[in-house]
């Protein structure tokens, strides 16, 4: 049986990155034992009003201080430490908040070419570890080329429609993973993901 995994997430969400990395490791284990799995990503934007002009991107730490107050650094420090224990790099000092619409569109393009997982993984690392501006078209083109995804401007309308579908479904936070019909919220452990897949 082929497992079907649907992950609703945002590239700019630290918990989504952690969930994806844990799921990625669980998938590698299951596939190494001959298991088959199909992964579908659904887009969500935690900051839909973030600037889509790359010149207006803001340092993420500054945005966090403005939105969450002086204690913002404590939660990012916890996430950074948690990630470090699992080999996931969070560099909030380099990260910039920019609109993730085009990144989600690129994942859709990559999916049509059979490379959605690789593209999502590279975009997460680009955002959280490399501090790259994901609203910048040149940056996205380079990342697509790295992963072997042929660039196209297709998919904007379909991405908008799916974002709206996710919004109207009642989802207010991510990540949410649906594995073989069972819904899991948050960054579940690798073992939990593996148990659902295998």
TrEMBL record:
* Protein's name according to its UniProt entry: DsbA family dithiol-disulfide isomerase
- InterPro entries, per the entry: DSBA-like_thioredoxin_dom, Thioredoxin-like_sf
DSBA-like thioredoxin domain: residues covered: 5-196
Q: Pfam families per the record?
A: DSBA
Report the source organism.
Nonomuraea africana
The source's superkingdom equals: Bacteria
The organism's lineage is:
Bacteria, Bacillati, Actinomycetota, Actinomycetes, Streptosporangiales
Q: Which keywords annotate this record?
A: Isomerase
Molecular-function GO terms, alphabetical: isomerase activity
Q: Would you indicate the residue range of the signal peptide?
A: none
